[in-house]
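Our working data are protein records whose layout never changes between entries. An example says more than a description, so a record of this kind follows.
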Amino acid sequence: MNPERFLHPVSPVARPDEAALRATVERLAAIERPPCSPGEREAAHLIADRLRAAGAAAEVEEVPAYGSYARPVGALAGLAVLAGTAGGRVRALGALGGAVAAAGIADEVSCGRQYARAVLSARRTACNVVAGIGDPDAPRTLVVMAHHDAAPTGRVFAQTAARRLARRWPGLLDRIAERPPIWWPVLAGPVCVALGSATGVAWLRRTGTALSALTVAAMADIASRRAVPGANDDLSGVSVLVALAESLERRPLPGLRVLLFSAGAEEAMQEGVRGFARRHFPGLPTSSTWFLNLDTVGSGNLVLLDGEGPLRTEPYDTGFGDLVARCAIEQDIPVERGLRARAGTDAIVPHRHGYRTACLVSLDDQRLIPHYHLPTDLPENVDYRCVADATQLTESVARALAAH
């Protein structure tokens, strides 16, 4: 996409009421919403009701899904531990077990076929919210995405060490454009088991066994925990969807169809959005559809990701990113670019299907996501000025696409 085609000046967009944004977050944060749970379903129906009240044609769509990444990843790491133990006596068995575990974990965390969860977990149901607003026959479609499920916590999400590092060397994280790949140590365990067993290098096999055992403990801890309130991650994004629907009802947007999509089971490795893809992507041409993902937009400082990916970085569409950045300038909203994430949001799915995709997130002044997957991710810890910026910017992008 040539962004210059869409850079007609857009009139200033009215800022949303921060109190209304907070009310949306507070209402939904009171519901415990792990993936594929009754709470996720309840939240989905409440969101759909709010969107209908704003004039959108909203539906709750149920899609088959699995409710956890911790169980399959933990089981595969457990296989690597067994392989590492056996590899000291039967090298071929250790190499084979480590290789199978490594391949399974890579497939699981990169949202591939995910065979392991199909074998190790019971299939459940995720609840997506899909709402249309604007002209259904418009030549272009913008899909604005968020997710309403919430993650379980765990000891691995503690930010004590990262906060200490940020205080000790305050400029260090500013210079890191790509965050450390958090899934690499998980994958390294079975890889080391396989290599150590195959080559007979005992210390390498034992190191892999120890790393895999740590992964088993971490995944067991996560699987046993309750979901956090998830106010910033990602009810901040959901509140943008509601505010955007209300604004577009007041000021209709000719020339653009807007789909407001709140996914379920995002915290189970993008299960909800993949269900959306199976159902809706055949009717959404890649040549005339854009995806804007909003994830944790209440941390204080908006960031437009250049790319993301759990094992390897996948760059997002530069042209669409330029359009979003230009809209931010026109609306006088500070937005940082140049950062690449190593987790994985719902934006990965439409990007891999060839859609022009942008992902808007936020960081605090220490360059971290505050309260990430922690019980302190509460409504009172959300920066609603930042959420209002995200809402204003999202509407500006929609109006820029419609103005062409």
User: Anything to note?
Assistant: Residues 202-223 form the longest helix (22 residues). Residues 3-63+124-151+227-403 form a domain with the Aminopeptidase fold (CATH 3.40.630.10). The chain is about 45% helix and 15% strand.
